Amino acid sequence: MTSTLTNRPRLLWFDLTQDRSTQELITQFEQACDCTQAKGTLLPNPERVDMICIHFDRPDTLGLRRLLEIKRAVPTIPITMFTVQHSEELAVWAMRSSVWEYMVLPLSATERKRYLAAVVQLCELRRNTQGRGKGSQIDHSPTLPDSIRLTAGHQKHQALAHIMLYIDQHFRESIDQRDLAKRCGMTTFRFSRVFKEANGLGFTDYVLNKRMSFAKDLLDNSQMPITSIGYEAGFKDPSYFARAFKQYANCTPSEYRLAYQMRSASPTQAPQDDTTLEALENLVHSLEG
Question: How confident is the model at residue 143 (pLDDT cuts 50, 70, 90)?
Answer without folding.
Answer: low
